[in-house]
Amino acid sequence: MTGTILFTIATLVALGLLFAVVLYFVAQKFKVEEDPRIGTVESILPGANCGGCGHAGCHAFAENVVKAPDMEGFFCPVGGNPVMTKVAEALGRAVEEKAPMVAVVRCNGTLANRPRTNEYDGYASCKVMASLYAGDTGCKFGCLGKGDCEAACKFDAIHVDPARGVATVDEDKCTACGACVKACPKGIIELRAKGFKNRRVTVLCVNKDKGAVTRKACSAGCIGCGKCAKTCPFGAITVENNVAYIDFNVCKLCRKCVESCPTHAINEFNFPPKPKIEEKPHEENV
Amino acid sequence: MKKTFRIGGVHPDDSKISAEAAIEIFPAIETAYVSMAQHLGAPATPIVAAGDKVKVGQVIAEPSGFISGFVHSPVSGTVKSVGPRADIAGNMVQHVEITVEGDEWMEDIDRSETIVKDIPFTPEEIIEKVKKAGIVGLGGASFPTHVKLAPPKDKKAECLILNGTECEPFLTSDDRIMREHPQEILIGGAIMMKALGVTRGYVGIEENKPAAIASMKEAAKAFPQIEVVVLKKRYPQGGEKQLIDAVIRRQVPSGALPIDTGAVVQNVGTSLAVYEAVQKNKPLIDNVITVTGRCLPVQHNYKVRIGTPMSKILEVAGGVPEKAGKIISGGPMMGRAIANLDAATVKANGAILVLTPEETRRRPESNCIRCAKCASACPMGLEPWLLNKLSRAGGLHAELEKERVYDCIECGCCSFTCPAGIPLLDMIRMSKAEVMKIMRSRPKK
């Protein structure tokens, strides 16, 4: 009995040693030479493998950035500037700081603002819903609220609030990887500059219908009246196809447009509350 | 033995509860909203403006491309406005709004009941008349009929098949017109056969319509070149490709057109419209719409002027019952839920179906167990479970194209048959649209 156990142990140890030696030589013979900097860069990256940079995960990003002659076109949206500075340091290169971005859902068609005209009971996916018809409200451009963006987000940063019926971004968690932008079949999510102290002014509407049609469908829709474009002292606003758009690179955050908008389609975010003037609070939707 | 098609198919309960309701003329409406996108292809261009007086049958819009069509005024009165209005899916489509005043028809339309059997026209004249009458395929796809009657020069038509299968459950409008207007349908068929230059014609009717079969067979005695073919009951037999297989035993290869088998398929409703257009000069201004559903106290088959709001039809039919769950345009298999009840009817509308919540309930979705029921049911020989998987993965357009997602006819057999309640068709339809868009954007060889 003891003999069998000892024999088994001895055989397994001998086999183990033999394979270890073989594997050692095989590993020496077929060793893959890898730039050690790839490992260094990869360890700096967040390791989320979100694909927001446009590469197939963090390792691919590291490989490509090491191969490339400079930092042009490489940016990790999750890690942002601090991570990119470290990567550049590790590679001994100079880096340009990028303005931090955040995903913005350009629709304020909440249940209160945009009455539902029919009930959708099909498969719960915005993409499927969009392939079937214009949507369960009078507006065929706005948020469908079935959560394709929520499913695409790897950072738990975007949710469809059932009480509002519109996707809402959690600014603190959003890394601006752009997964939700790609997932939205209506194309209403946009990456916008976070702005000074996270302050932003945004048109929360993409409705291209004529003013009268928009107004009927949603009380917070842009009717394309053009008042904001006339008010803006910096020429940051353009009105095209009956909808206003604020260029965040030009906008100086003066907030004149917010006051001029008759339907409150232009919203401000993260500004300190104004003293004295009692204003009707806009529903925050970032 | 009765014929049927050879690949796939399912047997839904046919529920033809409105089959005994004779066609009633729908009462006059106050306002008609005539859509400019009533046919496949480019929307028509309106040629009337607000304030214009129009008569029944007057041209109010002209085609704006090769695959497009004329639109006629279904009523007489004054044009109130021309502008966008929501269609049944909620999309904005150009409509001509006409306030109805009296019922004054164009002078050249023959409104008598006499049946005109002689066809004194040449094929070119017939095609021109069909085009001018704005006739589109009334089976549902609304493809302009004149395009189908003039096949490309390198393709030769050998026979005409009239589609009287009406394989969708609940629908009975084709059944009714075959019972009430068999002669007109057959003359329409003879007219189209003359236009195509073919000598052989068939009428395919499913066995669950014995009265229609009897009446068509009786009328067909006077038309030796047209044969009434009784088909087994099986969905989707009314699909063009399935019907060709069932009647003349030829299969349309993937990527080919039905004309490649030598067959041209036209719905019996289209045939009736062709008869009226060619022999009576009456353009396509009305159609028969079935208003049905188990929760409706009375079933109807109405002859409705095009441009009548759906809500008006339901109101006249007795209102929407409280227990109604979903209102569908078309049949329960391929029809679409009506998102906007104020939408007006278009040429190809065949039914308004009111279903109860129990009938429309979706089964809870569970996992695919690879039972292959969907693959057996697919009449196009596709593998719906695989297409569903590829669609959900996202971005696999090349693989989807390899699996011939573009061949899907959206009949819904896969979703109907799936024991796991997987919304196969929803997924496939979505990815089919994406793949077709990619295929169309490629430069033509």
Question: Given the structure, what is the number of helices of chain A?
Answer: 10
CATH second-level architecture of the largest domain in chain B? 3-Layer(aba) Sandwich
**What assembly state would you assign to the polypeptide chains in this entry?**
heterodimer
The run of helices and strands of chain A is: HHHHEHHEEHEEHHEEHE
- The CATH superfamily name of the largest domain in chain B is NADH-ubiquinone oxidoreductase 51kDa subunit
Write down how many β-strands of chain B occur, each being a DSSP E stretch of 2 or more residues: 17
Spans of at least 5 consecutive residues with low confidence of chain B: none
Largest sheet of chain A: 2 strands, antiparallel
Provide a count of the helices of chain B.
14
Low-confidence parts of chain A = none
Our estimate of the beta-strand percent of chain A is 5-15%
User: What is the residue-averaged pLDDT of chain A?
Assistant: 88
The N- to C-terminal Cα distance of chain B equals: 45 Å
* Helical fraction of chain A: 25-40%
Instruction: Kindly identify the CATH topology of the largest domain in chain A.
Output: Alpha-Beta Plaits
The number of strands of chain A is 8
**Topology-level CATH name of the largest domain in chain B:** Rossmann fold
Provide an overview of this structure:
By secondary structure, chain A is an alpha+beta fold. In chain A, the strands form 4 sheets. A two-stranded antiparallel sheet of chain A has the order 1-4. In chain A, helix 2 crosses helix 3. Chain A folds into 2 domains: 36-91, 3-methyladenine DNA Glycosylase II, Chain A, domain 3; 101-269, 2-Layer Sandwich (Alpha-Beta Plaits). In chain A, 33% of the residues lie in helices and 12% in strands. Chain B has helices at 123-132, 145-149, 173-180, 182-196, 210-220, 240-248, 268-280, 310-316, 357-360, 373-377, 384-393, 397-402, 413-417, 424-441; strands spanning 23-25, 31-35, 45-46, 53-54, 59-62, 71-72, 77-86, 92-100, 159-164, 200-206, 226-231, 263-267, 286-292, 300-305, 326-329, 336-337, 351-355. In chain B, helix 4 crosses helix 7 (268-280) and helix 11 crosses helix 14. Chain B contains 14 helices and 17 strands. Chain B is globular. In chain B, strand 7 and strand 8 form a beta hairpin. With 445 residues, chain B is α/β, with parallel strands linked by helices. The chains are: A alpha+beta (286), B alpha/beta (445). The A-B interface holds A 117-118, 121-123, 125, 127-128, 131-136, 138, 140, 209-210, 213 and B 84, 86, 89-92, 326, 336-337, 339-340, 360, 362, 423, 426-427, 429-430, 433.
